[in-house]
Every structure is written in structure tokens, then in C-alpha cells.
Amino acid sequence: MNDVGLLYVGAVLLVNGLMLLGTVPARSAAVLNLLVGALQCVTPTVLIIQAGADPDAILGASGLYLFGFTYLYVGVANLAGLEPAGIGWFSLFVAGAALVYAGLSFWRSGDPVFGVIWLAWALLWTLFFLVLGLGRAGLTRFTGWVTVLLSQPTCTLPAFLALTGGYRTGAAEALAAAAAAVLLVGAAAYLARDRPAVPGPVRPTALVKEN
């Protein structure tokens, strides 16, 4: 169920990245945010109920709420025309939590590839905080490209690999994932360089999930 949810998180991140780039209208993106946000809240609830008293299973499901709440927040805010500051500051909380989950993936779960993915999400949600929470409109285009470029390799690709039994994790795979993430962030900076965002009020948009 985690992997199924992660698959659709790749879709919503792609759409939210395009929203930040001005390609997809905010109200149009709201529906997908609400659907995926609901999925990312129902899924961990079911997993936690099924986990009984297993703390590792509960921990594994807990991170999904971070992203489920994010997408629900974005969907409601976009439909209601709310100011984005609340989403931005919640994104700061998500970014901090993502760093903790990254550490747990590296040193407790023995899954360094997902540790790298959590670090990529921490960066992404930090950018959401800067753009939506602090109103750094000049970073909007860069954040949009980072979201688009990271959406598939951090969500869709690992989800498909896990669902088909092809997911592998280890030091070599983690190094390759980290190198790919750095290259994609660099590509985002290159794509954003010629057309800086026009200063003005930043509308809600956004965002992870996780596993």
C-alpha cells in the first residue's frame, strides 16, 4: 500500500511543480491534491490499525501523514483562495521531519537509497517553505523545476521498482541516487536561470510522500 501511494505522489508532485511554473492553474491542480492527500491519510491509518503493537510498522506508516496533510492543505487552500503562508510553515515542519526519517533510513532501517530520497524531499519542502512561508517569489521558478525533476525519480520510479520486485538498496545504489539528485537540482537551476519569477503574491501550491 505504501508503494501504491508513492506512485500517485509522483503524479501530484509533477502537477504541483507545473503549477509553480504557471503551466497548471491552481484550482485545476486542487482536485488531484485532495485525492492523493486523502489516499496518503487513509493508507497510514489502515497500516497502523493492522500493525497492532509493532513499533517498526507504526514508524514506517507515520511519515505518510506528513505528505497527506500537505496535499489536503494545498487542495483546500487552492480551492478556497487562502494565503499560502500556513502551507509554507507546515512545510518547514515536514522538512525537519524528513531529515529525521532520512537518518532512520540510513542507520535503523538499513535502506540508504530511501535515506537519499528523504533528503531530497527535505530539500524540496525547504524550498516550499521559502517560497510559500517567507514569500521568496524569486525562487518560485527554481522550486517548480526541482519539483518536476525530482517527482519521478524519488516517487514514481522507486514505487514501480518496489511493486515489481526490482527495488535494490545499498551503498552503491545510494551514491548513484545522490549523484542523480544533485544533477537534477543543477538542471533545475539551469532551466530556471533565464526567466526569474515575477515578484508578487505567491499562491498556494506544492508538494511527498513518502514511504
Automatic annotation (TrEMBL):
Q: Where in the cell is it found?
A: Cell membrane
Its record classes its membrane topology as:
Multi-pass membrane protein
Q: One Pfam annotation, family name?
A: AmiS_UreI
Q: Which UniProt keywords apply?
A: Cell membrane, Membrane, Transmembrane, Transmembrane helix, Transport
GO CC terms: plasma membrane
Q: Does the keyword Zinc apply?
A: no
Report the sequence similarity comment from the record.
Belongs to the AmiS/UreI family.
Protein name, UniProt field: Amidase substrates transport protein
Species whose genome carries this gene: Amycolatopsis vancoresmycina DSM 44592
Identify the taxonomic lineage of the organism of origin: Bacteria, Bacillati, Actinomycetota, Actinomycetes, Pseudonocardiales
